[in-house]
Amino acid sequence: MSTDEDMIIEATEIVEHAKQMEIPVRILGGCAVRIHCPAHTELHKVKMQRKIPDIDFITLGKHKTNLKDLLGKLSYELQLVMVENERAIYHSNIKEITTDVFFDVIRMCHIINIKERLENDFPTITLADLMLAKLQVVKINRKDISEVVVLLLEHELGDTDKETINVGHIARLLSNDWGFYHTLTSNLRKTEEALDSYRDMLSPEELEMVRSRIGMMIARLEKEPKSTRWKMREKVGTRKLWYTEVEEQQRGSLAEYLTNKGKREATS
User: Fold this and answer.
1) Who wins on pLDDT, 83 or 109?
2) Domains of the chain by residue range
3) Is the dihedral of CA 264, 134, 193, 207 positive or negative?
4) Which of 36, 75, 133, 262 is the 20 to 30 A CA-CA neighbour of 175?
């Protein structure tokens, strides 16, 4: 069974191999959180008991075939293609690792287009895009909230992608999308409400830092001028579905779901 450390090493090595082939691949998910938050590895891994079940990647759709060839050379076999060819699952029996690969966009409850921002960070997607990926989940769970807490604890807010959560980018993006804005701000408030349950993991100062950064992020999002499209959609509100309904196994745990399914079939 591969450890978290095995996953992170494997993820960074695949990104490096891809770079040599001029394929821009970036890490997201739990591996990316761990890479970006080295000062809080113990919190993430031990206190929050966050196990990294698989490796999540994103690349450009035009590199789909080349990436498949690369992963094949590294012992990964294609298991499943889904969501209009925007997502693929690979698995290595030798390494006992599953990879979940997105192409161009992260399409779940909301759409996060990474095409123009893919190379703004390395070897992961940017902190802002990591936050968007975590906070776009309408039925947000404890795992996602925990990772939002870790990201906010380790990183300041700002208007750059240099080890900073680029809240300016997030605000501009959501100023034209009321649905995503509603989901994300609701989840930030849910995260704030959940902070009391982290008292045994975080100091009072750390809890206050996270709470303060949540408040600053919400204030920045509210302050951003909204488009006419945003204002028109706000009038409709939640009377109309504002997100895409996604099954649990599709929203970030699909690779784990398939791995466990394979184990069940093998023992049945």
Assistant:
1) 109
2) 4-267
3) positive
4) 36
